[in-house]
Amino acid sequence: MKVLSSGMCHNLDEQGFTVLSIEEKTQLNIALRVTPALCIVTVLLGMYYASWQVLAVLSVFGLLGTVTKRWQPFDVLYNTALRYIFRWPKLPPSPAPKRFACFIGLIFLLGATMSFYFGWIIFGYIFSIFYIFAAGLMAMTHFCVGSWVYHHILRK
Question: How far apart are CA 49 and CA 121, in angstroms?
Answer without folding.
Answer: 11
